[in-house]
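PROTOCOL LOG
Step 1. Enter all chains and additional molecules of the complex.
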Amino acid sequence: MQKALTFEIIDRLDGALARTGSITTPHGKIHTPAFIPVGTQATLKALTPEQLAATGAQACLVNAYHLFLRPGHDTIDKADGIHSFMNWSGPTFSDSGGFQVMSLGVGFKKVIDMTGNGAPNITQKKKKLATIDDDGVTFKSHLDGSMHRLDPETSMQIQHGIGADITFAFDELTTLHHSYDYQVESLDRRTHPWAIRSLAEHTRLNAARSHRPPQALFGVVQGANHEDLRRKSAKFLGEMDFDGYGLGGALEKSRIGEITRWMNEELPENKPRHMLGISEPDDIFDCIENGADTFDCVSPARVGRNGALYTNAGRVNITRAEFKEDFRPFDENCDCYTCKHYTRAYLHHLFRTSELLGNTLATIHNERFIVRLVDTIRASITDGTFFAYKEQFLAEYYQQ
RNA sequence: GCCGGAAUCGUGUAGUGGCAAUCACAGGAGACUGUAAAUCUCCCGCCUUUCGGCUUCGUAGGUUCGAGUCCUACUUCCGGCA
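Step 2. Run joint prediction.
Step 3. Record the structure below.
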C-alpha cells in the first residue's frame, strides 16, 4: 500500500540542527528545506499554477477554513481532490483552520505580533467572529455571517475532502499576549486533546477513503515563547504517530531560533518539521539552523500585491516616486520572469495605475525570491557554507 | 452685445451670516509572518522638531457686532440668446 509520506534526511550541518532532506508524497517529492507558497483559496492570488511552478515552488498550501466555506470540501472531493480542482500536480498542504480560530477571534488585525511587547492583542473595533471552547470553535462566517462549528473531527473531514497530501491537526494558536496560565490551559485542554482527536479521525478517514491517495498528518506544537511549554508540547506530540510536525503559534521574533530549537530537540529527528507562517529572511535562517524543514507564509504574496518587493538589500516599495523613470530591471541579480522582462519604471507604473499585472509580476518576484533563498540555504547546508552564507546574506539584507 | 449661472487645497467638491477647508481623487511615505488583505496607517496651504503660530474662499469695495455666504463693480469661465 502507498505510504502517505516518507522522509529521508540527506545532509546535516555540524554545530546546528539544520539538515537537508526529501519528503515523498503521493504527488511528488519536496527537497528540504523548502518554502511552500500559500494559495489559501485554492489559488495563489494573481498567479496561474504554471506561474507558481515557474517560481520554483515545490508545493503549495491551501486552507481548510476558506475551502469549507467556499466552495465546500464536498465540492472539491467531487472534483477528485484539490490537485485536480486547482490544476496543481505537485505536493499540497492544507492548514487545519486553527489559525482562523485566532485571526477571527482575539487576533483580528494583529494576527502574529512577533515583537513580544506592545498593546494587548484584542479585537476592538470589529466584533470577533470566533469563540473557543474545549471541544472546538464556533465561527461566524466572515462572508455571510452564518454560524459554523469547527472541531478536530470536522477539520479532518474537511481536509480529507480537500485531499491535500499533508494535513495539519486542528490546534489553538495563542498569542504572545495570553497569560502563561492560559498557554498551559490551551495545551492541556485544547491543542493536545485536539491532536489526539485529529489523529484518530485522520486515521479513520484514511482507511475509509482508500480510493484516494493516503494523506499525511502533522501535529502542531504550541507553547508560545515558554521553554517548558514548547518542550512539553513537542514531547507530547512527538510520542504520537504523526507523519511530521507543524511548529506553530506566535513566536517572539528575537527568540525564534531558540524557540525552534527547544521544539526540535524534543521532536523525533526522522520526521519533517514545518514552520507555520514564517518567511522573513532572518527568521528562515534562524529556523533552518535550528531544525525546521519547510515553511509556508502568505507574506511574499501579500506584500508583493501591496507593492513591496524583496531585494538582496532589503524590501523596497516600488510605488516610491524615485522609480518613476528608473528603467533598469527591478533586480539585475534575480532570475525570475519579472526581473528578466520588466523595468522598475514599468512595475511602478502598474502599481500606480492599480493594474492587476502589477500584482502578478510582484508576486512572481517575491515568491521566487523566498523560494530561491531557501533553495540556496539548502545548498549551503550540503556544502557546509551555511553560516558564512547566513552572515553574508543578512548583512546585506538588513543593512541600513 | 444681452440674459443667466459659476469662481473654496494640485483636481473635483462640502460649507448658504457665527472657529473655512468636509469628502474623494491625485500626490508623499510607511506597514504587512499557518490570508476577513489588489489591504491598512500616516502626511498632504505656509512656518515650526513638538506645542503651536500664520495665511487663505477670483479682484476691489460695501452692508453687518460678525461675510466664503448678502449687496455693488470688475475679471475670468460656462451656458443660452443674438
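Step 4. Note key features.
The longest helix of chain A spans residues 180-208.
The first strand of chain A starts at residue 6 and ends at 12.
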